[in-house]
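User: Let's play a game. I give you a shape written as C-alpha cells, and you guess the letters that built it. Ready? Here's round one.
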C-alpha cells in the first residue's frame, strides 16, 4: 500500500502551516508546487520542515539541462527531499535533475503521464511509455502516473519495475483510492484535504491506505 502525500496548493504561509499541522500525523510527505511558492516564497520550506515530513518540490521542471540543474540545486538547498521534472524535454534535461538530486541526497521523479483529461492529447499512450523508459535509463527514482487511469499505471509499472510511482488525481479529480492504492508507491491527495472543513479528519480518511 502507498505512502500518503499531501499536495499543499494553498495560497498563503499561514494557511499552509495550518493545514500541514493538522494533516502531518497522517502523512508521509508534503508536495509543494508553484501556487504556494509564488504566494509565500521558497522559504516556506523551512517552517514546513519542522513537521518532520519530507517535502517534494512539484515544479515539473522543464528546461534545458543547465537551467534544470540550477533550479534543482535551489530546491535542495532550501530543504526539499525530492523534485519532480517533466520528461518531454529529453534525457539530458532529466539527467540534470537526477544528478542534482543525487548530489543532495534527494530524489527525482519524472512526469510520465498526468491525471487531467487534456493529458490524453500528448502525455499518454506511447509518449508516456517512452518517457517512463527514459526515466529508468536516467536513473530517476520514479515516475508520476495518473490515479485517474489505473490501467495506465499498470502499463507503466511493467516498464519501470520496482522504481516508485507517485500518483496524483485521487479525490477531487475522481481517482479511486481503492483501485489505485495496490498499484502505486505514493498516493497524492490535494483539494480533498486542504479544502476540507477538518483537514485532519479528511487526511485520516485516506491514511487507511498507507503502508
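Assistant: Ready! My guess for every position:
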Amino acid at each position: 500500500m502507498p505512502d500518503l502525500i499531501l499536495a499543499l496548493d494553498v495560497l498563503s504561509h499561514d494557511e499552509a502551516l495550518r493545514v500541514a499541522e493538522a494533516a502531518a500525523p497522517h502523512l508521509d510527505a508534503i508536495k509543494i508546487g508553484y501556487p504556494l511558492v509564488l504566494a509565500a516564497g521558497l522559504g516556506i520550506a523551512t517552517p514546513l520542515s519542522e513537521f518532520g515530513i519530507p517535502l517534494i518540490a512539484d515544479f515539473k521542471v522543464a528546461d534545458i539541462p543547465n537551467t534544470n540543474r540550477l533550479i534543482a540545486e535551489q530546491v535542495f538547498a532550501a530543504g526539499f527531499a525530492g523534485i519532480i521534472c517533466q520528461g518531454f524535454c529529453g534525457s539530458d534535461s532529466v539527467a540534470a535533475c537526477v544528478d542534482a538530486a543525487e548530489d543532495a541526497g534527494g530524489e527525482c521523479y519524472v512526469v510520465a503521464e498526468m491525471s487531467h483529461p487534456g493529458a490524453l492529447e500528448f502525455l499518454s499512450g506511447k509518449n508516456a511509455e517512452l518517457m517512463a523508459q527514459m526515466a529508468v535509463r536516467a536513473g530517476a527514482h520514479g515516475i508520476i502516473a495518473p490515479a485517474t487511469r489505473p490501467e495506465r499505471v499498470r502499463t507503466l509499472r511493467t516498464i519501470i519495475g520496482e522504481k516508485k510511482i507517485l500518483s496524483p488525481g485521487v479525490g477531487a479529480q475522481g481517482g479511486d483510492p481503492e483501485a489505485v492504492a495496490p498499484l502505486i508507491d505514493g498516493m497524492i491527495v490535494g483539494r480533498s484535504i486542504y479544502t476540507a472543513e477538518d483537514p485532519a479528519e479528511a487526511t485520516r480518511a485516506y491514511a487507511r491506505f498507507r503502508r
